[in-house]
Design goal:
The chain is α/β, with parallel strands linked by helices. Helices cover 28% and strands 29% of the residues. The chain has an 8-stranded mixed beta sheet, sandwiched between helices. 39% of the residues are buried. It binds cytidine-5'-triphosphate.
Length: 215
């Protein structure tokens, strides 16, 4: 069923890459599989989809507007520009919490006995920025936790002020083709059975579609 017909959905997916110099950087472990699966599931449900992706090895989904992003700052800028044209925002990207403040425009040369010192500075929280907009789209967040999944996820849902949060255990989900997730909304916790990321994405879309305001 085309449960998202007429809806415009914006997603972030994959990791971000924070440069140290032109050939090095700091990144997060994220294959992008869950975000890309969700982009395809939203498209298949009839939505017009924009996918803003960090670097991944995945093929671009067909019939999806695709914007490549590198750093968290560039992903943030791309999201803030695109968001006014969308009804739903799904933040799946594993955004680096910090970037290198003293990144070098030139390749750092190795000086024996003199390791460089990297200074880190905080990146913007893309999901929180979008959720705080005066006319914010319906926001969906993800939480990958390594322990105390439900407690951390519940706290994250409240902190980021999102109506729907998808929680999974990082050690199960990372790079894998399947996932075991729990959906958290105002009504509480909805655990889903373990399934592949395509199935999980469809289940998230079904739940999300049921929460959207009727137009
Ligand atoms: N997120 C984002 N921008 C950031 C950090 C996170 O949009 N700079 C989004 C992610 O896409 C995800 C959600 O926020 O939807 C959860 O991110 P996470 O990093 O797990 O949450 P944090 O608030 O950073 O908490 P912690 O790292 O302490 O678990």
């Amino acid at each position: 069923a085309k449960t998202l017909a007429g809806r415009r959905v914006l997603l972030t997916a994959g990791p971000t890459f924070e440069p140290i110099d032109p050939v090095r950087g700091i990144t997060n472990l994220s294959s992008g599989k869950m975000g890309y699966a969700l982009a395809r599931a939203c498209r298949d449900a009839g939505a017009e989809v924009t996918l803003i992706s960090g670097p991944t090895a995945l093929p671009r989904p067909a019939e999806v507007h695709f914007i490549a992003a590198g750093s968290a700052l560039s992903m943030h800028a791309a999201v803030m520009e695109a968001v006014p044209h969308h009804d739903v925002f799904i933040a799946v990207a594993a955004v680096a919490d910090y970037r290198v403040a003293n990144a070098s425009a030139e390749k750092l040369k190795k000086t024996p006995g003199q390791a460089p010192t990297l200074t880190l500075t905080e990146n913007p929280d893309i999901l929180a920025s979008v959720a705080a907009l005066p006319s914010a789209p319906f926001c969906v967040g993800f939480a990958a936790e390594s322990h105390n999944l439900l407690a951390h996820a519940q706290a994250k849902r409240e902190r980021k002020r999102v109506p729907l949060l998808v929680a999974n255990l990082a050690q199960h989900a990372m790079g894998a083709d399947d996932n075991e997730i729990v959906l958290l909304d105002d009504h509480g916790q909805h655990p889903l059975p373990r399934m592949d990321k395509t199935g999980a994405a469809r289940a998230i879309v079904a739940h999300l579609a049921g929460m959207l305001p009727i137009r």
